[in-house]
UniProtKB/TrEMBL annotation:
SUPFAM superfamilies: Periplasmic binding protein-like I (SSF53822). PROSITE patterns: PROKAR_LIPOPROTEIN (PS51257). Residues 1-25 form the signal peptide. InterPro entries: BCAA_transport (IPR051010), Leu-bd (IPR028081), Peripla_BP_I (IPR028082). Gene3D superfamilies: 3.40.50.2300. The lineage of its organism: Bacteria, Bacillati, Actinomycetota, Actinomycetes, Micromonosporales. It comes from Natronosporangium hydrolyticum. Residues 43-353 form the Leucine-binding protein domain. The keyword Membrane does not apply. Keywords: Signal. This is ABC transporter substrate-binding protein. The keyword Lipid metabolism does not apply. Belongs to the leucine-binding protein family.
Length: 417
């Protein structure tokens, strides 16, 4: 298959080799020697993450991860001689842009240095310009839309989740490898849904498959009979659903129309790779496959530590490692810059992932920076940023649903931008 932009390696879960991580930053931009009395201030970080809407279950975990990371930063000596200060605003549903706009205005008014968020690609696109205009660093733990690469207002934008160019390519390749000659795609009409669906279709067709149905629905919809009728008429061998938790309304409609995963191979994505054990009869989703960006390594210990700090279990753990690393990387960029100047912090954000000395905790990395050393932070996700603020490499997990409608990982695919 022709893949001019990616290098892939597919491996069994138990046989995953370590990623070879290349430097992508400017090696000449070494951190300045740091002494506590050179600069004193407070690193103010705003969280714009969802507590309402379809991504709210993910928001719980991401917020908890940022709070846990901040506690580790403060225990590890803080930033600029002070504890990190966190403020939280609700991102809201992607279909209610006024909510995220109000959140951005609120954190700007509080003069934050950086924002962790938003979770939805659509929501981030709605606030990226206002944050850019105020020179606020923005790091999203879960934006995967391709639109952020080389974005007009992306000078202060970073993400710890990989572009859907990588996930979509991995999924398109997987469908071809599974031997399905025709494909139907139903996706939400958002930056996330369109970007991922189009990448899956492009790679699938480049591999010799035929997309016989590709349709988008409005995120505010609650009824999908017209779209499902078109899918049934097209009669594809395989089917991809790109959604958030509106999948819980779409799946019964598909079954009611006679379009069953027992007859067709279904594929889910990160937005709807959910635990459906309490929603449907056993066996309904058995054999359904799903893709999800994953960190390099088992996040179980980190998730357990976050849950202990949070005081409760997390409803969803997707993008929890990415949220944790987002907070750590903002803090390390600020330490390396030794300044609250947004340009200085931005310039160091890439450098703290591409330096000479690997370190895996804030305290360890901070100590190296204070000694005048360059660092390569290797945390929960092994994020290595390119100069555009995109992860330069990514690992995509392939998951399979069992009889109880829960999923487990069966494979990993590794790709490079």
């Amino acid at each position: 298959m022709f893949r001019p932009r990616f290098a892939w390696r597919s491996v069994a879960v138990l046989g995953v080799a370590a990623l070879a991580l290349g430097a992508c930053g400017d090696a000449d931009d070494e951190p300045e020697d740091i002494t506590e009395d050179e600069f004193s201030g407070t690193l103010n970080v705003g969280m714009i993450l969802p507590t309402t809407g379809g991504l709210a279950p993910y928001g719980v975990g991401m917020i908890a991860a940022v709070e846990y990371a901040a506690s580790e930063i403060n225990e590890g000596g803080g930033v600029w001689g002070s504890d990190v200060s966190l403020t939280e605003e609700n991102e809201g549903p992607a279909e209610e842009p006024e909510v995220v706009a109000a959140a951005a205005s609120a954190v700007i008014a509080q003069e934050v240095n950086a924002v962790i968020g938003a979770a939805s690609s659509t929501s981030s696109l709605n606030i990226i310009e206002s944050l850019y205009n105020q020179q606020v660093i923005q790091v999203s733990p879960s934006n995967t839309g391709p639109d952020f690469t080389d974005h007009e207002f992306g000078e202060y934008y970073f993400r710890t989740a990989p572009s859907d160019i990588i996930q979509g390519s991995a999924l398109g390749d997987r469908i071809i490898a599974d031997g399905h000659p025709t494909l139907g795609i139903l996706a939400q009409q958002t930056a996330y849904g369109e970007g991922l669906a189009e990448q899956v279709a492009e790679v699938y067709e480049a591999g010799g498959g035929e997309v016989v149905y590709q349709e988008y629905y409005d995120l505010a919809q609650t009824e999908y009979s017209a779209e499902i009728a078109g899918l049934v008429d097209a009669d594809p061998d395989a089917f991809v659903l790109v959604s958030y938790d509106e999948s819980r309304q779409i799946i019964p409609s598909l079954i009611g129309a006679g379009f069953n995963p027992s007859d067709k191979q279904w594929y889910f994505v990160d937005g709807n790779r959910l635990d459906y054990s309490g929603d449907y009869d056993d066996g309904l989703l058995e054999g359904v496959l799903a893709s999800q960006p994953v960190g390099d390594g088992d996040p179980a210990d980190l998730v357990a530590a976050i849950e202990e700090h949070h005081g409760d279990s997390l409803p969803e753990t997707a993008y929890v490692p990415e949220a944790y690393d987002a907070m750590i990387l903002v803090a390390l960029g600020a330490v390396a810059a030794n300044s609250d100047d947004a340009d200085a912090i931005r310039d160091q954000m890439v450098n703290v992932t591409t330096g000479d000395n690997e370190c895996s905790s804030f305290a360890e990395c901070r100590e190296l920076l204070e000694e005048g050393e360059s660092i390569a932070y290797r945390g929960a996700t092994n994020t290595v940023w390119n100069d555009g603020g995109d992860p330069s490499e990514a690992t995509i997990g392939i998951f399979e649903y069992a009889d109880d409608n829960t999923f487990s990982q069966i494979e990993e695919v590794q790709g490079q931008m």
